[in-house]
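Project outcomes to date are best conveyed with an example. Our students and postdoctoral researchers have been running inverse folding experiments weekly, and each run begins with a structure described purely in tokens. The record below, which covers 181 residues, was selected by the lab manager from last quarter's runs and is presented without edits.
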């Protein structure tokens, strides 16, 4: 079975990809820390979406792709047990004021295990609820809470400067910060 044809919604699929591809690539990059791996993850996820488009198109295709991205990223990490960080992110920051914090956050995310990183990206970058995050990762809400708590604690350890910006709400670590890798 190949990509959707015109009869079963090819135009809708193409429109979806055009609209969501950039944001999904940024999320994939934040999860895996490597531009090329992020591109591969997204390409594989979009191919899986294309194969299931007739069944998924009336639901929430973005959630379907996010679930594939994060599960595949964790699976990849389990197989390889190593990370390849790249200095060549998908998008460059234009302002210098937040650049140091953005770099600190990106580097701190690199110190997290893949599941904790995925939880933070889904919760704070993708702005999903705990329930939606749990569904995307195929875990319980309790696991999302514990992984989020552990990840935030680890971020405070490796990058304490992220928690002391008075201009941000909440605990100050990730909330309210636009991340441009």
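After processing, the design step wrote out the following sequence:
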């Amino acid at each position: 079975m190949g990509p959707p044809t015109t009869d079963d919604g090819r135009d809708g699929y193409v429109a979806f990809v055009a609209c969501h591809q950039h944001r999904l690539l940024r999320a994939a990059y934040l999860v895996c820390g490597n531009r090329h791996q992020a591109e591969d993850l997204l390409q594989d996820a979009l191919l899986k979406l294309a194969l299931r488009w007739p069944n998924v198109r009336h639901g929430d295709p973005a959630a379907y792709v996010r679930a594939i991205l994060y599960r595949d990223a964790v699976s990849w990490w389990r197989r390889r047990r190593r990370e390849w960080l790249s200095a060549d992110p998908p998008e460059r920051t234009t302002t210098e004021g937040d650049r140091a914090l953005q770099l600190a956050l990106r580097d701190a995310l690199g110190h997290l295990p893949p599941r904790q990183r995925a939880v933070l990206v889904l919760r704070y970058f993708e702005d999903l609820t705990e329930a939606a995050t749990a569904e995307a990762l195929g875990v319980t809400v309790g696991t999302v809470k514990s992984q989020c708590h552990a990840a935030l604690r680890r971020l405070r350890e490796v990058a304490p400067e992220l928690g002391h910006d008075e201009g941000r709400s909440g605990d100050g670590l990730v909330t309210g910060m636009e991340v441009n890798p």
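The helical segments are 10-32, 35-56, 61-80, 99-109, 114-125, 130-137, 141-158. Residues 165-181 have pLDDT under 50 and may be disordered. The training component of this project remains on track.
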